[in-house]
Amino acid sequence: MPLLEIRDLIVRYGEIEALRGVSVSVDEGQVVTLLGANGAGKSTTLRAISGLSKPAAGDILFDGQSIAGLRPEAIVRLGISHVPEGRRVFPGLSVKENIMLGASNRRIAKSALSREADAMFDLFPDIRPFSNALGWTLSGGQLQMVAVARGLMAKPRLLLLDEPSLGLAPVIVQAVFRIISEIRRHTTVLLVEQNARMGLSVADHGYVLETGRIVLGGKPDELWGNEAIRAAYLGGHAKVSA
Amino acid sequence: MNNPQFLLPNAVMDLVLQLLFTGIGIGAVYALVALGFVLIFRATNVVNFAQGEFSMVAAYLMVVFAVDLGWPYWLSFLLSLAGMALLGAIFNLGVYYPLRHRSFLPVIIATIGASILLANSVLAIYGPQPQVLEGWFETPGIQLGPVYLDSQYLLIIAVTIVMVAFNYWFFEHTMLGKKLQATSQDKEMASLLGISVSTMIMITFIYSAVLGGLAGILVAPVLFVSIQMGSTIALKAFAATIIGGFGDVAGAIIGGLALGIIETFGAAYISVPYKDGFAFLVLVLFLVFRPQGIFGERVAEKA
């Protein structure tokens, strides 16, 4: 049984159908990457899993149990942690406070919480010096580290990562992906990426989304060898003129 | 500065100290109400125009318990605050919660409606005659050198210091305080972390209603208990939040104190009938020359 199974998921924003029957399956211990152009429905898929967007139809099974339509607070308590697009680090709270709040889905004493947050800096040594800095003072790469560290504080069985490389310098992107390959040792990851090369480099399995539908799925090297993937990236089957 | 011309005569100095004491006392009331404004604004992005009525209702609750029923002052005080906590909860469920997914405008109009409803309900029960509430202490005050310290003003200042300290401890040193801050900064993200946003907003409304109520109970013996006291206090507190920097906790407290001092000195040295005018003159000056207030815009709202 897969850890996460999405069946024929449909999500609408008003009149617009953002997902038109998406089926994705993630096995425990895997890293699965969702690829696709802007507006293909990658973020919507993650938002539906974490409860931010309500599915109009279809089902989402986590560990065999339907979670479709549950509130975000309930879903994170079940063990799904969502690091959303844009980092969303609380600007007026310090780095350490942001990280500590990541454990809001668990009951834990404040002293133990503080120790766990300190331990998190071992995985993210770059942000340790900024422990007391407020969120709004950080750079994009630092914010991404804080966002991922905060997501891990939930001790999730499944981590949803939305565009962790977006807007970061190449050297920082490398650092972020090194951390993802650290995380995968003990946590299942569903990753959304526009950067196909990086996204597939850490993945066990990949899916390509196009205008709300899965058009392709397979092992990273299969996908990488497929000419259609590049077409999908350019926003559909339009021919690329040389 | 050795020139004796620049030294204030003793009598003037004494008066200045006396006015400063009174100004801080009344400013502390504005600060408490302003704090309620700011906390609700930060949690919901909405200005609660019924914040002043919280003070008015609490003062009338005191009249019910301490005067009409003749119960002990401390018991009346606790019951009134408990009543305010209940009112804050009902206010949240009845006014804010049903409209929480709408834009700020319907919510603001609902708070204005609630404020009219509260004022007129009290009017229907008590009529337009102002009520009188005694102060907490039998002793009217103490003479400290040249300054006469009114016991009710001393109480107001002491309670405000305690509440400001409590507020700081609560928001800076407890996880619940951090969760409330997180909710006020990004509700969707807070919910993704497992924070119950509706619980946090409920706590904010209850806390703000209690703060507003506390201000009303404290100031009631200084003023009369009247239907209008709510709107008067709310306008001053609102001005205080703008002067301090809208949405800023420290700004609300500093702004409230500054306003109390300015209007007390204005009344003493310039004109008593224009006392309320000074507060709004300062407000207008701030809106023209420093609209972000004393502490405004230190933190970008969205990262």
Index terms:
heterodimer; A: 242 residues; alpha/beta; 6-stranded mixed β-sheet; 4-stranded antiparallel β-sheet; 10 strands; 34% helix; disordered C terminus; B: 303 residues; mainly alpha; ABC transporter involved in vitamin B12 uptake, BtuC; two-stranded antiparallel sheet; globular
How would you explain this protein's 3D organization?
The complex is a heterodimer of chains A (242) and B (303). With 242 residues, chain A is an alpha/beta fold. Chain B is mainly α and 303 residues long. Chain B has one domain: ABC transporter involved in vitamin B12 uptake, BtuC (Orthogonal Bundle). In chain B, a hairpin with a 2-residue loop joins strand 1 and strand 2. In chain B, helix 1 runs antiparallel to helix 10 and helix 5 runs antiparallel to helix 8. Chain B starts with 9 loop residues before the first helix and ends in a 14-residue tail after the last helix. Chains A and B meet through helix 2 and helix 3 of A and helix 6 and helix 7 of B.
In a nutshell, what does this entry contain?
By secondary structure, chain A is an alpha/beta fold.
Set down the secondary structure blueprint.
The complex is a heterodimer of chains A (242) and B (303).
Chain A: E1 4-13, E2 16-26, E3 31-36, H1 42-50, E4 57-62, E5 65-66, H2 72-78, E6 80-83, H3 95-101, H4 110-123, H5 140-152, E7 158-162, H6 170-183, E8 188-193, H7 196-201, E9 205-210, E10 213-218, H8 220-225, H9 227-233
Chain B: H1 10-44, H2 51-68, H3 73-96, H4 104-126, E1 141-144, E2 147-150, H5 151-173, H6 175-185, H7 187-192, H8 197-219, H9 229-244, H10 249-269, H11 275-289
Antiparallel strand pairs in B: 1-2
